[in-house]
Amino acid sequence: MSAGLKAQTDSGYQGIQQMHGNSEHPKKRSKKQPLTKGDRKNNRRIASERMLNEHVIGALKRFKILADRYRNRRRRFGLRMNLISGIYNLQSGW
């Protein structure tokens, strides 16, 4: 990953800071350390930013190109992804 890119992950990727310094993920609570108001506010901000990406990924999975194993020619994958992305952008008004 490029250092200039910001990686936003869910709380399952706790060790990503060692591989990618510019990463951000929500803070997990534990029994001994509950989250502060600032931590909860930061987690909500991260979740709201990730929500847009997750909706687009879900919409692309409806076309089954990302949800299932791609069994066609590898060189046409990019063309098909571009076509599906164009259809999604046309529908959503982007």
Structure description:
This protein has 94 residues and is mainly alpha-helical. It has 3 helices and 2 strands. Strands 1-2 form a two-stranded parallel sheet. β1 (7-8), α1 and β2 form a beta-alpha-beta unit. It is elongated, with a radius of gyration of 17 Å.
| Order of H and E elements | EHEHH
Count of β-strands: 2
Rough shape? Answer: elongated
Estimated structural class: mainly alpha
List the helices and strands and how they pair.
Blueprint: E1 7-8, H1 16-19, E2 23-24, H2 37-61, H3 77-92
Parallel strand pairs: 1-2
Short description:
The protein is mainly α and 94 residues long. It has helices at 16-19, 37-61, 77-92; strands spanning 7-8, 23-24.
Defining key terms:
mainly alpha, 48% helix, 2 strands, 94 residues, elongated
